[in-house]
Write a structure and sequence with these properties.
- This protein has about 130 residues and is mainly β.
- Helices cover about 10% and strands about 35% of the residues.
- The protein starts with 14 loop residues before the first strand and ends with a helix.
- The mean pLDDT is about 95.
Length: about 130
């Protein structure tokens, strides 16, 4: 059976992928994969995504050195979202976000239904200007 064929790809041939840190359970980021990216991720044991803005494969860490070692690939019950259990490498604690933070999910909504604000809850661990040269 073709394991790639079991996934429900969107009209553009992509599937959303959540990267979760294996050791802490922290959700690090959301990205996208096409068939080639997923195949390479499975083969290499490191995260390879499809960059929608660049329209090409994106080997996580190719510029920053912040590679995601993949321990497990999971598919949700609807077969339209993937979860990668990863170890984030390249800096301790691991940096997954291009802003230099551990996680891309660093803004928390504080307030009620009628109003509130987004509050940044995670520090910049490394200046992005020094990561991406």
């Amino acid at each position: 059976m073709n394991w790639l064929g079991e996934i429900k790809w969107d009209a553009a041939g992509l599937v959303p992928v959540i990267a979760q840190e294996q050791s802490t359970g922290d959700v690090l980021m959301l990205a996208w994969m096409d068939r080639e990216a997923l195949q390479k991720t499975a083969e290499l044991g490191r995260a390879v995504y499809f960059s929608r803005s660049r329209s090409r494969l994106w080997f996580k860490g190719e510029e920053s050195g912040h590679v995601q070692q993949v321990h497990e690939i999971r598919m949700d019950c609807d077969r339209d979202v993937l979860l990668l259990k990863v170890t984030q490498t390249g800096h301790q604690p691991g940096i997954a976000c291009h802003t230099g933070r551990h996680s891309c999910f660093f803004s928390v909504y504080r307030g009620g239904v009628s109003g509130g604000e987004w509050v940044v809850t995670e520090p910049v661990l490394k200046d992005p200007e020094s990561i991406y040269k």
